[in-house]
Amino acid sequence: MITFNKKLFWFQVVLVCALFFLMAWSSPALSNPLKGKGEGEQKQTIVIKSKTLEVDNKRRIVTFTGEVDARKDDMTITCQKMVVYYVGQPEAKGKGEEGLRIDRIIATGNVKIIRPDGSSATAEQATYYQAQEKVVLTGKPVVKQGNDFVEGSSITLLLRENRSIVKGSKGKKAKAVLTPRSMKR
Question: Is the CB of residue 27 less than 8 Å from the CB of residue 126?
């Protein structure tokens, strides 16, 4: 049973902010910046639901298990398990002290990232590394936008560089399918 306290409240605020970042930038097909919105409008409410939620402050891990569903206005992530690893001190108050920050987030089990424009990414596992601003999709990863898609044994999204690397494996080459678009728009 989780009891509400100040430490848990602030941790959850940081967790929600980190999940927003992961959802907003986790795929090149999904990474178009929010356009035409003011600074305040980008802070949308995120709702994360799962069958269980476990906070382990000693190990610095938060685990969502069972039909995980994270939603905000323009993004939905579903998976079977989401584990958030964090570092820092929950109640850092002095200057120069580090507060909580996300180290990495691992989503596993039928991971799906869906945007209202129809773009999506799927994989068996998605790992977000905050320090490197990198997402690695493994386990039959596919990133789609319209009829276009890429797939391989792993897809690495280097967010800082706005670059992606799709790798094949011994038995399967990296693949990109691009459909011609009409010149008329």
Answer: no
In a domain, 16, yes or no: yes
Count Cα neighbours of 69 within 13 Å in the Cβ-side half-sphere. 4
48's tokens: 């994360």
Q: Is 19 exposed, middle or buried (0-12, 13-18, 19+ CB in 10 A)?
A: buried
**Residues spanned by the domain of 172:** 6-34+41-90+101-177
- The string of DSSP letters for 27-73 reads -GGG-PPP-S--GGGG----EEE-SEEEEETTTTEEEEEEEEEEEET
Query: 118 and 146 in contact (C-beta within 8 Å)?
Result: yes
Q: Does 96 map to a domain?
A: no
How do residues 95-116 score in pLDDT, each as one tens digit?
555 677 888 989 999 999 887 8
Q: pLDDT category, 57, cuts 50, 70, 90?
A: confident
Domain count, the chain: 1
Residue 46 lies in a domain: yes
The domain that contains 147 carries what CATH number?
A: 2.60.450.10
